[in-house]
Amino acid sequence: MNHVSNVPNLLHGATIPFLIFFLYQLMFIVITVPLMTGAFAGRLNLKGYVLLLIFWNLLIYFPVCHWIWGGGFLAQLGFRDFAGGAVIHTTAGFGSLACILTLGQRKIPSSERNGHSSLMAAAIGTGLLWFGWFGFNSGGALRADYQAVNAFGSTFIALAFAMITWLLVAKVKGNGFDFVDVLTGSVAGLATITPCAGYIHPKSAMVIGIIAGIVCQYAVAFRKQKNWDDALDVWGVHGMGGFTGTILIGIFATNAHLMSNSQSWFLLGVQVVGVCLVALYAYAVTAGILKVIMHMTTITTTKEEQEEGLDFTFFGK
């Protein structure tokens, strides 16, 4: 907590108290591992979750955050990530993929699970995400100016076009759609616009939203085809959304919004190499963490615990 005060830091928001920047970054780290929970829902016990939380942040989030936002080697190459497409969504998404493949499926088939879902609760939760995401993305400007407003508008446009595209693709594929598709499509747009929200013109957000609706829906379909147990489609929506959006910076970002004279093709190359490195690193280290912990202690749940429900098993209610 040294130097965390109301005095601005010239490197991290010269016009805001450093304490605000600290709390903004704290919000990011608090949400990143919980994003992954859908990938191991019902499979990790409480001890396993806490151990993963600690080591994942230490070995994945902190290094990647430093590479990109802390002046690390990717930042020095010119890699851009406005509000966490690589730092948060790509790391969480590909870390989730490692959890899915390392832990395997739940021990009871989906038809026999006792869990209940509520469309109303899902809608309320997604609405809260929408509202919070405006601050999430606009805050990437680290000041109240045109770039922050630009990020706000781009975020709203992208989520709308992603949601519409998701529904249209589902209709064309002949699968039909339901209200969950509305919610999932909007979140896909939010995840994809996150890395580029402040670097693009709002009209580009329409195209990015369309791309998000297509890419993320096919990623989710691929996950279903492979029968991966990802209850919240963390990899398909957050992982592939953040991954795709990070690459699209190299296509749609303008020098005026970047506040630099980056060469477009060079930037595109840096974005592709950088986000691939982040994805591979997050996947490999997450798998390594799980395998080491599983070798040392029991962190997975039994079939009986899954049938009873983990809330009751660990908390008695």
Automatic annotation (TrEMBL):
Listed InterPro entries: Ammonium/urea_transptr, Ammonium_transpt, NH4_transpt_AmtB-like_dom, RhesusRHD
Protein origin, superkingdom: Bacteria
Keywords of the record: Ammonia transport, Membrane, Transmembrane, Transmembrane helix, Transport
Topology relative to the membrane: Multi-pass membrane protein
Pfam families, per the entry: Ammonium_transp (PF00909)
Compartment list: Membrane
Transmembrane residue ranges: 16-37, 49-70, 82-104, 116-136, 148-170, 182-200, 206-222, 234-253, 265-290
GO molecular function, one term: ammonium channel activity
GO cellular component entries: plasma membrane
Presence of keyword Membrane: yes
Domain (Ammonium transporter AmtB-like): residue spans on this chain: 14-313
Family listed: Belongs to the ammonia transporter channel (TC 1.A.11.2) family.
Protein name (Swiss-Prot/TrEMBL): Ammonium transporter
The species this protein was found in: Enterococcus villorum
Name of encoding gene: amt
